[in-house]
Amino acid sequence: MAPHELWIGGRIAEYLSDTEAHTFVRIEEMVEHLKRIITEDLELNNNDESANSTS
Q1: Which helix (H) or strand (E) holds 32?
Q2: Looking at the whole model, is its pTM more than 0.90?
């Protein structure tokens, strides 16, 4: 797994801030960011599928 694909939350994130991973000291903040990313990804997938089904 590539470092930029990792999402790390909690106190350990303080020690990993110089990595390429997504780090958040506050777990709630990490969850909100993940929700946004997942929602965006799902909307892209849904748009791609609907475009293919109408052609």
Answers
A1: helix 27-53
A2: no
